[in-house]
Amino acid sequence: MQVHRDTSTAWEVGLWTLANNTSRFHATAVAPRTKEHKDMAGGIEPFKPEYPHEDLGEIASLSPDGEEPTEEERHTLRKVSDKLPWAAFIICIIELCERFTYYGLSGPFQNYIENSYGGRVPGAIGLGQTGATGLTDFFQFWCYVCPVFGAIVSDQYLGKYWTIFYSALIYILGNLILFLTSLPVAIENGASLGGLITAMIIIGIGTGGIKSNVSPLIAEQYQNTSQFVKTLKSGERVIVDPGKTIQRIYSIFYMMINIGSLSSIATTELEANIGFWPAYLLPFLMFLVGFAVLVAGKSKYKVRAPAGSVIPKACKIMWIALMNKGNWNAAKPEYQEEFASGKKYNLKWDGIFVEEVKRALVACKVFCFFPIYWVVYSQMLNNFISQAGQMQLHGIPNDLMQNWDPITIIIFIPIIDYFFYPALGKLGFQMKPITRITLGFMFGAGAMAYAAGVQKLIYKTGPCYDAPGACEAGLLPDGTYAPNNVHVAIQAPAYLLIGLSEIFASITGLEYAFTKAPASMKSFIMSLFLLTSAFGSALGIALSPTAVDPKLLWMYVGLCIACFIAGVLFWVIYSKYNDTEEEMNELERYTAKPKSVEQADEEKAAAAEAPAREKSISE
Fold first, then answer.
1. Which of 209-218, 421-430, 433-442 has the lowest mean pLDDT?
2. What is the pTM of this model?
3. Residue 360 in contact with residue 347, Cβ under 8 Å?
């Protein structure tokens, strides 16, 4: 038998080596070895700097308040969050308004697309459950692809604030189109489907530019990067930890997102009792409020100037490391000066940036399992709504039930952040990121298991059993069909489990994307995390043919098994990164931060004045 050699194998091995050489991290630049002591790979060995108080003779001493902790204190004192800057709360209000708009618009989408105009359940287009699920999955996919483009524009050209500003204007246009084409006269004349698709595309572009930038912008309002000791009023000595502060910022940020998402309570009631046009007008008006806050608060934000061609630099670093069999040191200027032979690269970065890119690759590896989680999460936005429509609603709109998810998050975030995590900390157990994300996957699997149980109960109950709303026995005198005799309230725990899964998986994902990204690439790495949701939506589109009776039961069972296995594999593969979490975060202390907009403007003005100044001196 003739064996054909796969020419891609060398590349695959190289990529695998590159990805797996990120397991150890060091907090600073590297020191060149002498050529006599050069290692076999020809690299240079990274080293960690001398931290204050790390000398063994000083361990017994106590650090005064405001000073960095000793090594002993790092292991014995409890870590707490710092105070949060007011600018962060202003940005939270902006995000609340944007999410109010997004969820207020998308909440009625399933009914708007699935049901026909004038039926028992509100509707406009009449594409059925499969068509509605596919179109809503497309919308989610598009909304999470666009952040990549928004991030590139932000990190290289406009900066975060101006990217958010122009994206908001695009968003406003999409809102206006959706509102106008949802008016009764537009629906009756067949304009609703074309208007919806156009609005979805435009809104996706707008929300993409906002999503990839608003979450890094809020965390950047907190400037401290070093731990320090503080004595509480109770007399307890603690370490104020930037990592804990960022964790709290994102917990509050996510809580604001979910307060905004309660807009679907109002819009689904408007949809059920008046029509779709007021359901889309309310979010439109709320977005205008958020835009006004964005503009009014501009002077309060700490805004960094774009860093230029930083993304191509990062790609070049990864290419050099790949070409050197995963040796990241080869991409450092110190290596080029000391050891490089043959082809030398013109390097326009320092060794710290190489370490940052290496750390960012860890985050990208961790993100790989998230698409499976997002498929599970997205069931709440489409198939759970349809499932509620198969049960006795008792006057409750079927798309109102999804609000149990944000209610769960709003209630449990303060409990978990202010009580659960600190209680574990006092017991000596730190809930590090990989642990939290794994727990989120387990809660997601539990939600799918519960949804499968609810679907089985629906199929076992009359009048239509495994064909709810589609049998002669359920036909009503008005020509509509009665749902099966199951109370819709039984669905609520599925939303509770999804909400808990978000607290552990989604919030931690945002935090991980920010803390592991290079300072000049925060938006881009955040967009890659958001892109995992787009892949999840693509998987959801592929699964949409199974979103029909009587296949729904097995769809939920399959998602439960997939999410559970993904969580187990996630822990097995990535739990090692819990051990290097603080070491990776220490790198932020030694990073050159991008200039503020004011500093960049001053440098440009000085550069513009320099020729005239030189000319006057020469004269």
1. 421-430
2. 0.77
3. no
